[in-house]
Amino acid sequence: MMQPNLIPVLDPNPLPAPYWVFVSLLIITFVLHIVAMNFMLGGAVVALMAKWRAKNRVLGNRVFFDVAKKLPSLLPATITIGVAPLLFVQVLYGRFIYTSSVIMAWPWFLVLIFLTVAYYGFYYVSFRSGQHPGRAGTVMLSSVILIFIIGFLFSNNLTLSQTPSRWGAKYFADPSGWNLNLSEPTLIPRFLHFFVAAVALGGLFLVFVALANWKRDHEYARQVLQFGGKSFLYATMAQFAVGIWFLISLPRGMRMLFMGDSPLATALFLVGLTGGVAAIVLMSGALRNENLRVAAYLVPGIVAVVIACMSVMRDLLRDAYLNPWFNPGQIAEKTQWSVFPLFLVLFVSGVILWLVMLARYGFFGSRKESAQ
Questions:
Q1: Stretch 319-338: mean pLDDT, rounded?
Q2: Which of 186, 259, 282, 360 sits at a 20 to 30 Å CA gap from 313?
Q3: What CA–CA distance (Å, rounded) separates 298 from 183?
């Protein structure tokens, strides 16, 4: 009966824009963050697979080094873009995310340490991989493991923030701040859902590398296309199994949102499911026919739609979890019209500038690299 008292009171300060604007910005920035994160983590995983598992060792090492040079840029991009959705989460759901962060305070603090060490590891590999190829693989694997742990800690915090009914038992059983949310049934499948998706996007990252080198070094690009496309196919097929596990692990009320109770959630689920099947079929055909246009344009376009649908579904699921304690109608609003348009202009300009920088500086491939 006392459990609701553990939730901090609602901040009386009004939102500087309508509630739906913050929700929309949260979803948009989360999509950008998750794409950068997937390219970073998935790219590193696929690079290690190429180095250690590729039948052609020369190809595997070249793919490994090509990806390694880009990771020190992808990690800060992941962090920088990730600040925005985290801030929007704090604005809308701060009462919940702050409390769960206190309950698991020490693991949450470790995220910064692990992130710093992983960052140095990526830089070490990018600068010295050519001098110590064997050691470079071990260092990259260490950084990937740290990023893996960071993602697991994020999943712990976010699932804990959505279940206030468990806060009291966890905190009073161990108020030291060393708690995790390991008893949450959705924790493992939810985390694996993100990790497997990262591997799939890592495969698409290699498809973009193949696209950048298609005319300059066709044979290399062709092999990269096959390796990256197959990585995408296998990971996406595995994602269906993980997704079913995740869906089954949800409480019945939450699960039924995507099975008819909510028309929007159900429609998004069906679009995501159909998009995943279509991406597999199209990528499979593109690899057989070496159709780069389908692999590098059509499939990523479909994947982008799937990611957008999944991001909205994630937001709907969070609101369903928090429904007993969270009512958007109680949040005061006072739109600052003098600042809001400027914010939107700067936000859109920043995204465009980021994309232009990627294209201008040949992020997915360069003339110098392809000539080697």
A1: 91
A2: 282
A3: 40
The three-point CA angle 34-40-41 to 5° equals 85
Q: What is the residue extent of each domain of the chain?
A: 18-338+362-371
Which amino acid, residue 113?
A: I
**How far apart (Å, rounded) are the C-alpha atoms in residues 162 and 93?**
10
Identify whether the C-beta of residue 316 lies closer than 8 Å to the C-beta of residue 264.
yes
**Residue that has been written with the tokens 């493991």 in this structure:** 145
- The answer, yes or no, to whether residue 86 has pLDDT greater than 60, is yes
Per-residue pLDDT, 367:
43
Amino acid letter, residue 361: Y
pLDDT band at 97 (very low <50, low <70, confident <90, very high): very high
- Dump pLDDT digits (tens) for 114-143: 999 999 999 999 887 566 566 889 999 999
Query: What whole-number distance in Å separates Cα of residue 282 and Cα of residue 63?
Result: 24
pLDDT the model gives residue 310:
97
Q: Which two tokens stand for residue 323?
A: 């429904």
The distance between the two most distant Cα atoms of the chain, rounded to a whole number of Å, is 69
pTM of the complete model: 0.92
233 contacts 299 by C-beta, under 8 angstroms:
no
